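User: As part of a screening pipeline, I want to sanity-check one entry by hand. Below is the sequence and the SMILES for adenosine-5'-triphosphate. Please return the complex as structure tokens so I can compare it with the automated output.
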Amino acid sequence: MAAILEEVKASTDESDSMVDPEAALYQKSMRRLLQPIQKHLEDESVSEIMINGFDTIYVESKGKITKTTDSFKDEETWEAAVRNITQFVGKRLTPENLSIEARLPEGHRVHIVQAPAAISGTSVAIRKFAKEKLDVAELIKFGSMSEQCAEFLGIAVHLAKNVIISGGTGSGKTTLLNCLSAMIPSDERIIVLEDSTELQLQQDHVVQFEVKPPDAYGRGGITMRELFRGTLRMRPDRIVVGECRGGEAIDMIQAMNSGHGGSMSTAHANTPLDAIARLEVMSLMGGVDLPLSAIRAQISSAIEIIVQISRFHDGSRMLTHVSEVGPVNDEGHSTVKDIFVLVEKPDGKRELQWTGVRPSFVQQVQQARHELKIELTEPLWA
Ligand SMILES: Nc1ncnc2c1ncn2[C@@H]1O[C@H](COP(=O)(O)OP(=O)(O)OP(=O)(O)O)[C@@H](O)[C@H]1O
Ligand SMILES: [Mg+2]
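Assistant: Here is the complex for your manual check:
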């Protein structure tokens, strides 16, 4: 490995080094070590590359996952390539740290899990950075959501509702969060917190923060929770958290309940109620000294809208529910009411339809009517 790097260093010509020697070196060594997947890295139609072991490589293109015939030469070459990635992102795989997430200079997001956690050898998933992010118009065009639902979400975001996007892996949560963030009025100060930067907000006043792990000696680094707490002192109008994965959930819930309206995040769950259950578990991980019933009540009052998105077998992504979170009921259970659900029509096509249920904030919409675009959602507010 060191020999390869030395060789690449020596062959890095002067013009490259004048641009940015680190980046040039990275490009060269990476291209060489990742040669078996280079064509997929360059192919813009490929959105994800999944390497389950040196000789098992899958790619996702246009929503479909297929197995390729590509392979790294052997286990050792593959391990060298992985070490190269970790070295350049400044993270380390150690026996104590079997899994890392990182972002390559091109913006690709990489997840690495090594043995013994990865049974069939070091596994890597590369979510490719798409220069052109999908926007709401495209999501409508793809049938992922209806125009009426897009208008509803625009109104909810404008009125600073707290929104959670829920979905499985690769279901389109981050893409949808990006689209919803784009609906935040441009005069608001938006603070974005992510494990690794993916969101691209177009507004003027955006501050982006990224979690950093400590170095090999345990120095430095900042966690999502520390970032979140710092953010609260930085006068955000909106807080966008890329993904809630742990104890930061309780910080976010409490911030939402103490006046930080219009915050948004995503969570890994399969239904809106499941998303609430996930938030409960994550909040409990936050180590606050509160009984579950209190946490549940806080979540129900903090989160206002849950948008559920799913990836279907044909590779399409569709919103399946847009639900409003209600209060905890007499039996102590969380409740939601669906405003939009995906229905299958007689011809087999799926369509996101309004359920006929009115949102609880009809009055607020009526009062803010002059500043909202209400066309297709008129019946919801009647
Ligand atoms: N509505 C959509 N229609 C078609 N493709 C989509 C849609 N939304 C997202 N995609 C594509 O699906 C892939 C995954 O999207 P995204 O990163 O938003 O998912 P995710 O749920 O955040 O994934 P993860 O769980 O890994 O964080 C990307 O390549 C993206 O371009
Ligand atoms: Mg994501």
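Points to compare against the pipeline: Residues 173-174, 243 surround magnesium ion (ligand 2) (CB under 6 Å). DSSP finds 14 helices and 15 strands in the chain.
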